[in-house]
Specification:
4 helices, Alpha-Beta Plaits, alpha+beta, 4-stranded antiparallel beta sheet
Length: 128
């Protein structure tokens, strides 16, 4: 039950992106599953939020981010990212704010799994 609820919540956060993604068939979506050293979790979250805010403010090709924390294992973070295109993602990872984030969290991240995804169906009444 907890796992299915987690995925329902994950999909709900992605729904905001679908409206933009459906209008732009070349959008690129990725899920990052991250495990963080629990003793450095607060510092990690601070660095993540700063990077996300900078990317959304300064990069036209970054369409949305949703960062989720596992309720029962708070050191497990899932990030749903939507970009205008693969090229926009490639530009993103070369930005100063992304490189600053990567440097700041070096040593905090204990595991990282990146998965490219394609939305099948997403609906929402949520406004974010």
């Amino acid at each position: 039950m907890k796992t299915s609820l987690y995925f329902v919540l994950l999909l709900a956060t992605m729904m905001v992106s679908l409206k933009q993604a459906s209008a732009q068939p070349s959008t690129y979506m990725r899920i990052a599953k991250i495990e963080v050293d629990s003793t450095q979790l607060n510092e990690y979250i601070k660095a993540l939020k700063a990077q996300m805010e900078s990317a959304l403010k300064n990069e036209k090709g970054v369409l949305s981010y949703s960062a989720l924390q596992d309720k029962n294992a708070p050191w497990k973070i899932t990030i749903v990212e939507t970009y205008a295109s693969v090229a926009a993602y490639e530009v993103h990872i070369q930005t100063a704010h992304f490189k600053k984030y990567k440097e700041a969290v070096d040593g905090m991240v204990t595991a990282l799994e990146l998965t490219d995804v394609v939305p099948i169906a997403m609906e929402s009444k949520l406004k974010h």
